[in-house]
Amino acid sequence: MYIGFILGQMNYQGDLNPNSFTFSHSKATTGITIRQSLNRWISFKGDFAIGHIDAADSYNRDYLKSRNLSFRTTIKEVSIGLEASLLDLSTNHFTPYVFGEVALYHFNPWANDVSGNKIFLHPLSTEGQGLSQFPEQKPYKLTQIALGFGFGARYAINDNMNIGVELLQRKTFTDYLDDVSSIYVDKNVLLQAKGAKAVEMAYRGDEVPGGLPYPNHGEQRGTPSEMDWYYFFGVNFEIKFSAFAQLFKGMKAENSSALHFTRCPKNVQQ
């Protein structure tokens, strides 16, 4: 069994960023993996990772800049899956691999308001989610399932350590990673149900020079037919669990020895 440490970059694709993976809008991600070889070709893997994604209409396509929406969120996920090596690492010291996973992840989108305050968007029902006046607008869950697949390459440094790079894609079943999906709802209804802050965060075009007033009920806010994705690209350093345990044991013993001392005998007066 191997234990691994991941360091890389994460970004997302959705209503506020129609592009796939780009380094220019990626954020740091870190995680821990375990991998158990079932045979020379197939391995079971499990991961825990924390990453960050964000986007803003100020970087979006020209015709969407006037909407002026933005979001940020932390992604926390655990996943399990299978990995297939294309070469025998024990004889080649290098192999490409492909993998598929199922992930459970948590997100909670937020944005800074005009005063710079951090505002979580889910409780505001910015598209009328969960309000009785808009039964077709269903609330979204902050913890969900995603499917993952990707590919990578691994190099065996020695019998105990590997290093590799991989690209992972997560297909979600929500269009609300960014809190943007379908339509604007009636401003007055939203104001009465959720307050002025909900109206402010639902449409922010009036904050930019020449911005238009709040749109009419039913005008397009997002594209509900396209679910959101998030992506990860990173470096994975692996070490055999037995070697890691031995290394940890040696470090512990070394620290213990450093703390141990022999008391000097007291001087005996003549």
Could you walk me through the main structural features you see in this protein, from its secondary elements to its overall organization?
The protein has 270 residues and is mostly beta strands. Helix content is 14%, strand content 41%. It has helices at 89-92, 187-194, 196-202, 241-259; strands at residues 2-13, 27-37, 42-56, 70-85, 94-106, 110-112, 118-120, 143-156, 161-172, 229-240. The strands form two sheets. Strands 1-2-3-4-5-8-9-10 form an eight-stranded antiparallel β-barrel. Strands 6-7 form a two-stranded antiparallel sheet. Helix 2 (187-194) crosses helix 3 (196-202). The chain is elongated and about 65 Å long. The chain starts with a strand and ends in an 11-residue tail after the last helix.
What class would the helix/strand composition place it in?
mainly beta
As a whole number of angstroms, the C-alpha radius of gyration is: 25 Å
**Biggest beta sheet attributes:** 8 strands, antiparallel, barrel
Distance between the amino and carboxyl termini: 65 Å
**Sequence of strands across the biggest β-sheet:** 1-2-3-4-5-8-9-10
Q: What percent strand? A: 35-45%
Q: Which stretches are low in confidence, meaning pLDDT under 50 for 5 or more residues running?
A: none
Broad shape: elongated
Topology as a string of helices (H) and strands (E): EEEEHEEEEEHHEH
| Count of DSSP-assigned helices | 4
Overall pLDDT level:
90
Helix content: 10-25%
Number of beta-strand segments: 10
Annotate the secondary structure layout.
Elements (H helix, E strand, L loop, with lengths): L1 E12 L13 E11 L4 E15 L13 E16 L3 H4 L1 E13 L3 E3 L5 E3 L22 E14 L4 E12 L14 H8 L1 H7 L26 E12 H19 L11
Antiparallel strand pairs: 1-2, 1-10, 2-3, 3-4, 4-5, 5-8, 6-7, 8-9, 9-10
Helix pairs in contact: 2-3
